Amino acid sequence: MITIALLLVSTAPIYAQGDAKNGEKLFKANCTACHALDKQLVGPALGGVVARLKADQNLDTDWIHKWVKNNKELRASGDKYANEVFEKFNKTEMQLFPNLQDKDIDDILEYTTNPPPPEPDPVATPVDGAAAGASGEDSSTSKIILVSLLAIAGLLIALMFKIGQLVKLQQSEELTAANARNAKSFAQIYEKYSVVGKIILGALAVFAFYGFWNWLMWIGVYKGYKPEQPIYFSHNIHAGVNKIDCQLCHSSAKYGKVSEIPSMNVCMNCHKMIPEYKGKYLEPGKDRDFYTGEIKKIYEATGWDEASQSYTGKTKPVQWTRIHNMPDFVYFNHAQHVVAGEQAIISSHNKKNPDNKIDVVCKACHGKIDTMNVVQMANDFTMGWCIECHRTTEVDMTNGYNQAYFSGLHDKLKKQYPSSNGKITVSAIGGMECGKCHY
Ligand code: HEC
Ligand code: HEC
Ligand code: HEC
Ligand code: HEC
Ligand code: HEC
Ligand code: HEC
Hints:
Blueprint: H1 2-10, H2 20-30, H3 49-57, H4 61-76, H5 80-88, H6 102-113, H7 131-171, H8 177-218, H9 235-241, H10 246-249, H11 264-271, H12 288-302, E1 304-305, E2 310-311, H13 334-340, H14 342-352, H15 362-366, H16 383-392, H17 400-406, H18 409-416, H19 434-437
Antiparallel strand pairs: 1-2
The structure holds heme C (6 copies).
One heme C binds next to helix 9, helix 10, helix 11 and helix 12.
């Protein structure tokens, strides 16, 4: 009797067939682009979806399995609710997941039914990306320059004063006793200290040259560059708070040479259904009306009329300001880094920065974009920066791409670069050759 009661209590959750931990992982990887547990995004909120569909539609998990694997097929079969919900969401196509196993879907449903307690509120730690790291170095360099300029100015004033005295001496008919002493002592001082003076002047000249050189080297470096954009689009709110995957918007990063800013259609996939900002997160000095106003700009740009839920045909293209932009003579390919180099870059970054680990390859170069409200350049994107990483990142000789290209070469490379202790860095596979990066 007691055991039965205990059993009943412990199985009290409506649905307990899966592993919520694994479910959470799968949900984040496959579903968060369009679903949240507690609010509608592109698709409906999925918290408690099993109970809801059972209560409202008398559908069981079998139906959900079919829907998740291939909702298109389910609709085509004439299923009533599948077609209803599709209509309700303006015929937005949900992605098909033919590769998810029944067990995976059960795990996801376990997670949507019994999610673990939420993580601490992101509002508590609003960070603005790379700002801290970026400014430190600059301010110490400018301090050095400031001090040296002050020193030079001081020396010039002292010299003018002395010269002024000398000129006065020449013009006066008689040297007063005091002035005579003064002139004599100046001559003596000059003789005594001329060597020291020359050394000081020499040092200052070297200093000034160093400053000039540094200034030259900084031309074309825009680390921290952070322009204002026509729509206030926050990566923190999208990629951070709402955990939208980078590649949902920058999908060509994986396949193409460039990574591209998403078109307005991509925004509308979600914002047809999200006409206003209701999030908890607010930046200091901004309110929900501000964000909502920015969302309306998407409608203005695409000619979307909210009242009639249709496009008017009057569009107004948005001109995003390009932030990262290599000179034309440089060849940079995202796919090479995001696909072939992904594991090598992530593990090398995490080894070098144990306190600042990354999970997404993009962050190795672009910094923690998912914490930035306004994108800024997190690195200086110079030739030295590319080379430094190629010199120190071990390539993953086991990935398919490299295996195909470099099979048999591995041992030869090891012999050729004995100083690297058998480690093969990007430089060994051609990452230092001028022609690889320059047309
Ligand atoms: C590309 C966007 C997208 C992705 C990714 C996505 N969905 Fe959906 N989902 C939708 C939309 C939109 C709907 C509403 C129906 C429609 O328009 O087809 C929906 C509906 C559903 C429904 C029906 C819910 C209800 O209340 O009727 C379930 C269940 C569901 N999705 C589960 C999932 C799961 C599980 C995943 C991840 C494995 C997932 N979806 C990934 C867009 C998406
Ligand atoms: C919801 C869509 C969306 C998501 C998700 C998203 N981005 Fe963006 N991204 C944009 C838009 C729009 C811009 C242009 C406006 C701007 O600069 O803020 C942009 C700009 C950028 C830029 C600057 C491009 C330039 O002009 O040089 C980088 C770098 C970038 N994103 C990286 C990322 C990374 C890394 C992630 C994932 C952590 C990510 N983005 C997630 C939409 C998105
Ligand atoms: C995958 C879904 C998705 C896509 C794609 C998407 N957004 Fe959003 N957007 C959201 C969500 C979720 C919010 C937060 C809504 C809330 O919390 O009430 C949001 C909020 C916003 C806001 C208000 C907050 C802020 O960032 O200033 C703006 C503006 C915005 N989106 C612009 C865009 C633009 C421009 C694009 C296309 C480049 C875009 N969104 C693409 C889901 C999306
Ligand atoms: C190895 C460093 C590196 C990695 C990793 C990387 N990027 Fe980039 N990214 C760059 C460089 C360099 C540029 C400038 C390219 C140019 O101007 O031709 C750039 C430019 C961009 C741009 C501006 C548009 C363009 O294509 O020029 C976006 C958006 C962007 N990256 C997004 C991403 C996303 C999303 C990821 C992860 C999927 C990513 N990047 C991974 C180095 C990197
Ligand atoms: C965070 C580290 C990192 C940075 C920064 C970086 N790269 Fe790379 N790069 C790699 C890795 C890792 C590979 C090797 C990928 C592979 O396994 O094939 C690579 C490969 C390459 C290759 C192909 C080399 C070959 O022999 O096939 C080129 C070209 C290249 N990078 C250009 C650039 C340029 C241009 C920049 C600067 C704008 C840059 N990279 C910045 C890590 C980086
Ligand atoms: C890993 C990629 C990479 C390799 C290898 C490389 N470069 Fe570059 N180089 C760059 C990038 C990126 C820039 C642009 C830097 C900028 O815009 O600040 C550049 C800029 C230059 C410039 C113009 C400098 C300036 O300030 O405008 C010259 C000249 C140059 N490289 C010559 C070479 C030579 C010679 C080699 C071979 C020894 C070489 N590069 C190898 C990536 C590379």
